[in-house]
């Protein structure tokens, strides 16, 4: 299977591929996430991808888009509490279901690793929602470790 990965600004293709991501979040956290709306996603991705700190990679097989990775470079300023730190933050990774567990997600992650190396960024961060076992297992296999826990209490 010959999958190609390329950096992209194709916000329409990213929006289309986001459907599974947004739908999973809405189905599992309907009070937090809106249902997928193609027009809203196109507008959101168009605006996002214009930011110089945002990057996206698109995975394709036989000219069909099958997955993407979206992230951004984030710099925390120096303060009395913490040192300045630049990280590469992975915000979204998605592979269409028929191509999952075939190495596509890994190819996308490898591109993020290369980008971090190119930009001399020493740390990659990401987060995922509780209950997303597929994401947790994938990121654990990629040697990501928990370093911070967020909790909430509904009142």
Characterization of this structure:
The protein has 155 residues and is α+β, with helices and mostly antiparallel strands. The protein is built from four helices and five strands. The protein has helices at 11-28, 38-49, 104-118, 133-141; strands at residues 3-7, 54-61, 64-76, 85-95, 124-126. It has a five-stranded mixed sheet with strand order 1-2-3-4-5. A hairpin with a 2-residue loop joins β2 (54-61) and β3 (64-76). α1 (11-28) crosses α2 (38-49). It is globular, with a radius of gyration of 16 Å. The protein starts with a strand and ends in a 14-residue tail after the last helix. The relative contact order is 0.15. The model has no long low-confidence stretch (mean pLDDT 96).
List the helices and strands and how they pair.
Elements: E1 3-7, H1 11-28, H2 38-49, E2 54-61, E3 64-76, E4 85-95, H3 104-118, E5 124-126, H4 133-141
Helix pairs in contact: 1-2
Give the strand order, joined by hyphens, for the main sheet.
1-2-3-4-5
What low-confidence regions span 5 or more consecutive residues with pLDDT below 50?
none
The biggest sheet amounts to: 5 strands, mixed
**What overall form do the CA principal axes indicate?**
globular
Note the run of SSEs as H and E: EHHEEEHEH
What is the residue-mean pLDDT, rounded to a whole number?
A: 96
How many helical stretches?
Answer: 4
């Amino acid at each position: 299977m010959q999958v190609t990965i390329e950096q992209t600004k194709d916000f329409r293709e990213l929006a289309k591929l986001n459907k599974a991501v947004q739908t999973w979040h809405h189905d599992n956290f309907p009070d937090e996430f809106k249902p997928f709306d193609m027009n809203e996603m196109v507008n959101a991705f168009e605006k996002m991808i214009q930011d110089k700190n945002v990057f996206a990679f698109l995975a394709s097989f036989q000219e069909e888009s099958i997955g993407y990775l979206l992230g951004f470079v984030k710099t925390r300023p120096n303060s009395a509490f913490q040192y300045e730190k630049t990280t590469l933050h992975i915000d979204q990774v998605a592979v269409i279901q028929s191509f999952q567990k075939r190495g596509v997600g890994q190819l996308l992650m490898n591109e993020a690793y290369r980008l971090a190396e190119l930009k001399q960024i020493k740390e990659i961060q990401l987060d995922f929602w509780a209950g997303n076992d597929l994401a947790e297992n994938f990121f654990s296999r990629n040697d990501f470790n928990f370093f911070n826990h967020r909790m909430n209490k509904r009142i």
